[in-house]
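# step 3/5: fold
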Amino acid sequence: MLQAIKKIIIMTIVNIIFFYSFQSTADEMVLIKKYGFGLERDIKGRPLIYPIENYDECKKKCNHMNYIADVNAQLAMSKKNNRIFANITFTNNSSTTYFFSKYYLPMKVKDGKGDEYDAICKKPFRINSGNITLDYLGGSCPFEINTNPERWNTIKPGRSFLLSITLNDMYAFIPGDNYYFIKSSGYKFVNDKWFTLKSINNIFLYFLNLKINCADDFF
């Protein structure tokens, strides 16, 4: 049944030059020690650069293979008023309508001062500057699968969908002029058959649980 569920995982890799930096490619080749930036803070609450001890494990988790499918993804960067935006455009090149969960969309949240900022349930990007990896600071939330297509974003054949995310709200960027490499995470897409199969599974589990509950009550 799982084979009948058609999922597409899209991963986009792009090099972005934000500012000029004098780090050389040769230096990056010989560097072994890796660092993180964002999670650890000094006594004034400012982010610190710190060594990553489990870098190899983290690298294996993030080093997914690219998958080319019916939906194409393009990543572009923009900057406005010191705000850095990542804009992902999904284009459906097939003759089938695809859906992806609103779980991927950023939510507008207000802080204690009343200022709005973007929050998202999944880690959207992996951002590196040389041998330093920026920590994701946007938090997370449980992924709830909903079988109602209206709760999903629709991309019809030949159409596109733009996903825009404010990176400053989720990452602390290193002060000064730096070069950044940005890699997007995987986005899962499903077709209309997925909703039918998922509904059948839910009905089956409902009757199975009902039968178990009746047996428990009987004893």
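# step 4/5: annotate
The helical segments are 25-30, 55-62, 192-218.
# step 5/5: archive (pending)
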